[in-house]
Amino acid sequence: MVSAVLNVKIDEAVKEKLRHYAEVNNENLSTATEKLLLLALESTSEAELSEDDIDSQHTEEENASPLTAKEIKALRKLLKKKK
C-alpha cells in the first residue's frame, strides 16, 4: 500500500473524538482516521438508497430537445445586437 497525505479541516470537537477513539483502541491518529474513513465509505457503498431517499421533493428533469436551426439563428442575431 502506498501512503498519501490528506490535509483536512475539521471541527475541533470531531478531532478530539477521533483522538479519544485512537487512544482507546491503541492506534495512532492516522491509523484510526484511515480505519474510520474506510468503514464509512464501505457502509455508504453498501447502503441501498431508494429514489425517494435521493429526491424527497419528487422532481423530475424534462428532456429538452435540441435547438432548431431557426432558433440558433435567432439567438445569434440577439447576441450580435448586444455587442
Rounded to an integer, what's the Rg over CA atoms?
25 Å
Q: What series of H and E elements makes up the topology? A: HHHH
Stretches where pLDDT is under 50 for at least 5 consecutive residues are none
Helix content: 55-70%
Distance between the termini: 57 Å
Mean pLDDT, to the nearest integer, reads 84
In percent, how much strand structure appears in the residues? under 5%
Number of strands: 0
Supply the number of helical segments. 4
Major sheet size, sense and barrel closure: none
Q: What is the oligomeric state here?
A: single chain
Q: Judging from the principal axes of the Cα atoms, what is the shape? A: elongated
Specify the structural class.
mainly alpha
Protein architecture, described:
With about 80 residues, the protein is an all-alpha fold. The chain contains 4 helices and no strands. The chain starts with 11 loop residues before the first helix and ends with a helix. The mean pLDDT is about 85. About 60% of the residues lie in helices and about 0% in strands. It has helices spanning about 10-25, 30-45, 50-55, 70-80.
Task: Give a brief description.
The protein is mainly alpha-helical. 59% of the residues lie in helices and 0% in strands.
Task: Give descriptors for this structure.
83 residues, mainly alpha, elongated, single chain
What is the topological layout?
Layout lengths: L11 H13 L4 H18 L4 H4 L14 H14 L1
Helix pairs in contact: 1-2
